[in-house]
Design brief:
Elements: H1 2-38, H2 44-65, H3 78-86, H4 89-99, H5 101-105, H6 118-148, H7 152-187
Length: 190
């Protein structure tokens, strides 16, 4: 009897979760429709708003679905770290700090500067990378649409912001995770 109730509760939670996903996606579609009415698809302002709308959507979906993200895909090699360094990920990180982005998004519950929160910070890098990767992939569709129509200004704005807002953040999350895993290994078991 208890097992049947637990299964029913799990199914209800799953249904509720998917209703939330549907609501978030419908809301995002509505916002994008409004943005298309307000701004020209081929302009910088639309590209900027598109990326930030998708970031908000990804954040909401991540909180709602809470994916486990334990795949070996999230492991980072030393060679990969060297590639990211050569592509300027440290400069990107300094730029984020300079404009106050890092401080604005800092969550003391995730990382308070102590060894005790290194693991939660490492987990947060996986969630950030996951969200930015999906957004990067999703934005390839409007880039392809613009290219198919010969709208090279839209390709430029969407593509350059895709690199700046998603490709570099993915590299930064992976770079940070390699450093964090090293620190966690040095700290040893608690």
């Amino acid at each position: 009897m208890a097992e049947r109730e637990a299964t029913a509760a799990r199914d209800a939670l799953g249904s509720t979760r998917w209703l939330g996903v549907a609501a978030i996606l419908l809301g995002t579609a509505a916002v994008l429709w409004v943005l298309l009415r307000l701004f020209e698809f081929r302009g910088a302002l639309f590209a900027f708003e598109l990326h930030f709308t998708l970031m908000a959507t990804a954040s909401l979906l991540d909180k709602l679905l809470a994916p486990d993200l334990q795949s070996p895909y999230f492991d980072v090699s030393e060679r990969e770290v060297r590639v990211y360094r050569s592509l300027g990920v440290l400069g990107f990180m300094r730029g984020l700090r300079a404009i106050g982005w890092t401080a604005a998004l800092r969550d003391k519950e995730v990382f308070d500067g102590t060894r005790a929160t290194l693991a939660s910070y490492e987990r947060a890098t996986r969630h950030g990378e996951h969200a930015h990767t999906w957004i990067f992939v999703c934005v390839l569709a409007p880039i392809g649409w613009a290219a198919a129509h010969g709208w090279w200004d839209a390709v430029f704005w969407l593509g350059s912001m895709n690199v700046l807002f998603h490709a570099y953040p993915v590299m930064l999350q992976r770079f940070q995770r390699a450093r964090l895993r090293h620190l966690i290994a040095l700290a040893g078991p608690r």
